[in-house]
Amino acid sequence: MKYKNEFCYKVYGDYALFSDPITRVGGEKMSYPIPTYAALIGITKAIYFKPTLLYVIDSVKVLNQIRTVSKGVRPIKYNNGGNDLSIYTYLTDVAYAVKGHFIWNENRPEFTNDRNEDKHYQILKRMIKLGGRRSPQLGVSECPAYVEPCNFDEEKSCYDDSNSEISFGLMYHSIIYCDEAINEEDKGKMTVCFHAPVMKNGQIDFIRPEQCTIKRHIRDAKQKVFDTKKCESVYTLHTELFGEVDKNELDN
Q: Residue 77 has what pLDDT?
């Protein structure tokens, strides 16, 4: 690619709850000790989302010590309404450094004209500096997240000097939606992916969803197609309002 498209940011908050969305419909909830790939994708999309892009999370660095706290909550009963009593186990005082990059979503040919790498990189960088376009969450809505720019290599983890490897066993990785599938076997389906992450000196390097060897197709799915007739080019709109302009000025 012509321009740099790698991004990094620091995300932190008082509490976090990362769990398998398939098994957390009701009852007790307990967080994984580390953020899932899907949760980090969700935070990145809250910072800046465009269907033209597919985000890839390369690595996450656990900055603070992994600690948990339990709270009594009153969730809604899904079978007959009202409330129930449950114990939720959250991570507390969390902070992570995240590094990733974006690629084009080849399943969206209607946005081919929007594939301007430098434009999206510059917008993403500005949105990270501003804390995101929408409100990022650390797994669930009751755990707000705060985002700021960082230098991934300079961020120090509390596990940097441990010289250890910690395996977290089989964990939920992400869901491949039909409009984000890269492998032919995953297209037209909703697919749940699992992996076994290992933390080395506080850093976890992720594999991509299509590289997961443990997957399950939940159901068939149909991709939504955006009507390009209802989309107007920023160049056309700017020309109508302000007259002719150099496209490079809008891209930058």
A: 75
